[in-house]
Amino acid sequence: MSADSPIDARIPLAKAPGFRWDAADAYLFDIDGTLLNSRDGVHYNAFHNAVRQFFGVSSKIDRVPLHGNTDLGIIRAVLRRQGVSDAEIDAKLPLMTAAMCAEVERNAAGMRPELCPSVKELLRRLDAAGKLLAVASGNLETIAWKKLEASGLRPFFAFGSFSDRRELRADIIRWGVDEAQRRLGSAAAVYVVGDTPSDIQAARAASVPVIAVATGIFSLQELKSHRPDLCVACCTVLLELSH
Ligand SMILES: [Mg+2]
């Protein structure tokens, strides 16, 4: 990175000794806050409509932790707060999530994903270097792919791990790591890229390195306190980083 880069001048890096961000064989990217931020209500509205339709609950999701949570984790937290039993949640969940996904598909033309800085350039560079690229997201699968299609990023990713079958982020990440190593061999190095402390903790639980980007709601300082292997303001810094 050049010494007069404005990002370099303002933002200190937090880097584990000897860590090379481009040394992995495969990368698992979180979506919201890492690749893009949604500037529309398509996903949010589908959530509220489905919760109302299936559980008669009009509670807003804003009062449960959203960032770093998974769609299923958010649904369960909202409904538990309203006194809905886990048995009822589990019984209705498959139809409810199907309704959410169907609504997002109907309204996909209204999606307005805003790419985080330099994301496309970063993916192009990793793709050209022959890296296996995948997403590991707390979104439901259909909704995740719709966001990636709307943002033009879908072709970069070979597979994804989502919250449909795995409610906890740690399990979503672990499955993604396992799938990458099934494809590339068990010795393949897999890195996680995410924007929340939950991503960092989930990568740690899966024993893989993690790069944190401060393009979601968490500040660089806050992310650094969770000690990722590398913490940067945005992907532009990765592209400029020399070893
Ligand atoms: Mg995120």
Keywords:
single chain, 243 residues, alpha/beta, Rossmann fold, DNA polymerase, domain 1, 2 domains, two-stranded antiparallel sheet, globular, disordered N terminus, binds magnesium ion
What does this structure look like?
With 243 residues, the chain is α/β, with parallel strands linked by helices. The chain has two domains: 162 residues, Rossmann fold; 69 residues, DNA polymerase, domain 1 (Orthogonal Bundle), CATH 1.10.150. It contains ten helices and nine strands. The chain has a seven-stranded mixed sheet with strand order 1-9-8-7-2-5-6. Helix 7 crosses helix 8. The chain is globular and about 55 Å long. The termini are close together. The N terminus is likely disordered. Magnesium ion binds next to loops.
